[in-house]
Structures are given as C-alpha cells and as structure tokens.
Amino acid sequence: MAMYHLSNDEELKKDYHIREIYLPCEKTDVKIIYPIPKYTISPEINDLVAEITNKIKEDPTNGFRNQWERLVRELKLRKIQNE
C-alpha cells in the first residue's frame, strides 16, 4: 500500500481531495479523487439556479430558454475576451 498511495502527492493535493480504498484482494486497489471546487457557491445562488431551471422547463413559449441561452453565450464571449 505504501508504494502506490497518492495521499502524499503534493501536485494532486492542491486541486483534489484524495480518498484511497484498498480491497483485501491481491494487487487490487480503487482510488477515488474528487476535484476541489475553485469557487464556492452560496445557497442563495443554488436556489436561484433551481428557480430559473424550473421556469425554463415550465415556460410554454420557450421565451425564458431563449433569454437564458443568449445570456450564456454573452458570458462565454466575455470569458474568451478576458483570457
């Protein structure tokens, strides 16, 4: 186990939570690596996203969907311009 563990890998520790599970089988192990979120999202934003998603799903005219897609395109363009 000491030869193959990733818990002390400094490069991975910076961006991932590392949890290692060793199964009692010969030469078998499972590694699960979770990315560390770069941005923290407040519960209010999560609620707002859920509300927007429901409005888009329930809108018979697809007006909200068109507005949302336009907003997403504009945000992507801003991101490209800022890079």
Short structural description:
The protein has 83 residues and is α+β, with helices and mostly antiparallel strands. The protein has helices at 10-15, 43-58, 63-82; strands spanning 16-22, 29-35.
Plain-language structure description:
With 83 residues, the chain is an alpha+beta fold. It folds into two domains: 1-37, no CATH class; 43-82, no CATH class. It has three helices and two strands. The protein has helices at residues 10-15, 43-58, 63-82; strands at residues 16-22, 29-35. Strands 1-2 form a two-stranded antiparallel ribbon. A hairpin with a 6-residue loop joins strand 1 and strand 2 (29-35). The mean pLDDT is 79.
Topology readout:
Elements: H1 10-15, E1 16-22, E2 29-35, H2 43-58, H3 63-82
Helix pairs in contact: 2-3
Instruction: Give the terminus-to-terminus CA distance.
Output: 42 Å
> If strands are numbered along the chain, what order do they take across the biggest sheet?
1-2
Q: Report the uncertain regions.
A: none
User: Which percent band covers the strand fraction?
Assistant: 15-25%
Report the principal-axis shape.
elongated
Q: Tell me the number of helical segments per DSSP (H or I, 4 or more residues long).
A: 3
Outline the biggest β-sheet.
2 strands, antiparallel
Helical fraction? 40-55%
Average pLDDT metric: 79
